[in-house]
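User: Trichome birefringence-like N-terminal domain-containing protein. Structure?
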Amino acid sequence: MFSLLLLLSILLSNYNVYGKLINDFNQLEINSCDLFKGNWVYDDDYPLYNSSICPFIEKQFDCLKNGRVDKDYLKYRWQPKECNLPRFDATEFQKKLKGKQMMFVGDSISLNQWQSLTCMLHAADPQAKYISKRIGGTSIFTFPKYNTSYLMYRNAFLVDIKTENNGARVLELDSLSSAAQWKEMDVLIFDSWHWWLHTGRKQPWDFVQDVNSTYKDAPRLTLYEKALNTWAKRVDSEVDTTKTKIFFQGISPDHDNNPGISGSNRCQGVTQPLKSTIGVHEEELVLEKVLKGMNKSVYLLNITNLSQYRADGHPSVFGHGGHRDLDCTHWCLAGVVDTWNLLLSALLG
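Assistant: Predicted structure:
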């Protein structure tokens, strides 16, 4: 019932979020082309880089080093229906960001995209010195030659989780103390969803604090929407969007239980893009609803549909856990996430 009502409300509002700036309907486009509508085509010029020259790629994303033999998943390029997606020009990208800071804020999917971008930039100029360090929950990757900084701030829920004196962990849906970490950045890319699905031992809270109410749990889409609304209020009240450009990464689809994969409900053994996808991502509808209600300009980097076809792009058994921990959530590098950064680059102008 929830998903049906939410879908109806979006349809009745008569707007198209795909490739759009949700708030005022300005196109996220190049020459009137919606970059998010298209298909995957085989391209012998791909991948954009060889992952072996990026020693900082985390083990969980380095599928070739972890023993993956098939390589067709590296060869697919996203082709918008009505135009061509500009090829990545790392030098121009660095010039656009000269003297600026770009920060990814979110979970390990944000880490995936941040590592993709830093590898794309390093591979284009491998002799350029880079400095990589971590301070608390923030990883910082700088290129002194270009005076650019690319940061990754780990905050899977965007809102706060605090530990009480008795050791209880409390998810505080109306509290967001981390804004000081990101509100002065020049470019922000937010992400949150993956960790909202965790239950049992992987659930990082014991109680939920919602204004004056405390409870053990609630439907995860409900909690997700409440947290997004808290984040949206902080952005609306504290971020100067004349200085800071804000993106929200669309929901990254996993393929843990995908009926579109014939003969399997997971990504293991999939070596080609899917021919079709089915199903509606309710969490994406929630995200779109919240973004649409904001006063400030926040761009949806709508990677959900295009990534849904790429069950072949996950680490599967070639992640950090091998056969013991099949990974159909994250993405191999090089791979699908590089396309997310191509889209980001194009939309930065």
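The radius of gyration is 20 Å. The chain is about 25% helix and 20% strand.
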